[in-house]
Amino acid sequence: MPTPERTTLPAIVASARELLERRGPAGVTMQAVAERVGVRAPSLYKRVRDRDELLRLVAENAASDLSRRFAATDGSVTELAHAYRAFARANPMSFRLLLDSESAGAFRDVADPILEATRSLDAARVVTAWATGFLTMELAGAFRLGGDLDEAYAYGLDTIVAGLRRPV
Amino acid sequence: MPTPERTTLPAIVASARELLERRGPAGVTMQAVAERVGVRAPSLYKRVRDRDELLRLVAENAASDLSRRFAATDGSVTELAHAYRAFARANPMSFRLLLDSESAGAFRDVADPILEATRSLDAARVVTAWATGFLTMELAGAFRLGGDLDEAYAYGLDTIVAGLRRPV
DNA sequence: ACCTGAACACCGTTCAAGT
DNA sequence: ACCTGAACACCGTTCAAGT
Question: Given A95, A167, B51, B64, which is the most exposed site by the fewest CB atoms within 10 A?
Answer without folding.
Answer: A167
